[in-house]
């Protein structure tokens, strides 16, 4: 696409070792006037991939920045952008065709509109992308320059705080392609739940039996029933259950962090006097029969 035909949008991406996914993300951004990619130290072929796109004429600025944390890294990337509208997108996401077609209309919004939320449809192993009938949560991803910033208090599930009205974009979706097998997805949920628990503890969160008991099943029911993952068969069931595991791990870690402060783990056997075992006497020799 010639430069003059591109939309006044800066798409920004943070990445590290995303060679496997980043190419299709860049391809979906061909309408954007600028693509800012902030790398925190890739050791795979990510840098070479990005440089090949830049050499082919894509409007890419490739920046290295040491890892600051999710929210701070995305805020740094946002601040490198120069266009009137900014699009936050992950390296394993891509704009579907409907959303690409809708972008020009969104950019003509009145000044009172600061940004737009998009649905994000994940790819499920054994199914594909969730259908449009599934109610995926909408996330603020398109923002006017100088009208939004990331909430730096969030360690995980970082989001943009907007200065002005935020509307939902109905046509189109972000497609999230990272089909992790369940053993890898559980590791990811474990890592994210640690970040979430530590963040909540900093805010004074306490372990509550009701939250421990209710949050995981409610999380599952929200995803599976209300959002409609039941439409995706076993893949949808697995997706909802792994989400409930994330909720359970978060609550469990909050409890255990407090429990360890109240009662540090201690082996009750340490320092105990050794047990004195009775000394077994030698067995008596059998009586010999006297002739």
TrEMBL record:
Belongs to the glycosyltransferase 2 family. WaaE/KdtX subfamily. It comes from the Bacteria. One of its GO terms (molecular function) is glycosyltransferase activity. Residues 10-132 form the Glycosyltransferase 2-like domain. It is an enzyme of class 2 (transferase). Its EC number is 2.4.-.-. The keyword Repeat does not apply. Pfam families: Glycos_transf_2. Residues 261-291 are annotated as: Disordered. The gene is epsH_2. The lineage of its organism: Bacteria, Pseudomonadati, Planctomycetota, Planctomycetia, Pirellulales. Keywords: Glycosyltransferase, Transferase. This is Putative glycosyltransferase EpsH. SUPFAM superfamilies: Nucleotide-diphospho-sugar transferases. InterPro entries: Glyco_trans_2-like, Nucleotide-diphossugar_trans.
């Amino acid at each position: 696409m010639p430069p003059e035909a591109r939309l006044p949008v800066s798409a920004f991406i943070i990445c590290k070792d995303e060679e496997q996914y980043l190419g299709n993300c860049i391809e979906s951004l061909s309408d954007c006037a600028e693509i800012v990619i902030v790398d925190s130290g890739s050791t795979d072929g990510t840098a070479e991939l990005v440089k090949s796109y830049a050499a082919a004429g894509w409007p890419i600025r490739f920046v290295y920045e040491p890892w600051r944390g999710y929210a701070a890294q995305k805020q740094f990337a946002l601040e490198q952008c120069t266009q009137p509208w900014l699009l936050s997108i992950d390296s394993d996401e891509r704009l579907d065709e409907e959303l690409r077609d809708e972008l020009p209309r969104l950019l003509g919004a009145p000044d009172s509109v600061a940004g737009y939320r998009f649905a994000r449809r994940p790819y499920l192993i054994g199914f594909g992308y969730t259908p449009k009938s599934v109610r995926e949560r909408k996330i603020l991803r398109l923002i006017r320059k100088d009208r939004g910033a990331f909430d730096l208090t969030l360690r995980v599930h970082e989001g943009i705080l907007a200065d002005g009205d935020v509307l939902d974009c109905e046509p189109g979706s972000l497609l999230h392609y990272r089909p992790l097998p369940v053993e890898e997805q559980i590791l990811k949920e474990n890592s994210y739940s640690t970040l979430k628990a530590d963040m909540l503890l900093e805010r004074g969160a306490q372990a509550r039996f009701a939250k421990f008991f209710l949050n995981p099943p409610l999380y599952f029911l929200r995803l599976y029933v209300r959002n409609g993952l039941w439409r995706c068969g076993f893949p949808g069931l697995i997706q909802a259950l792994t989400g409930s595991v994330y909720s359970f791990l978060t609550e469990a870690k909050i409890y255990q962090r407090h429990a360890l402060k109240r009662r540090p783990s201690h082996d009750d056997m340490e320092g105990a006097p050794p047990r004195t075992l009775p000394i077994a006497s030698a067995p008596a020799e059998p009586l010999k029969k006297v002739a």
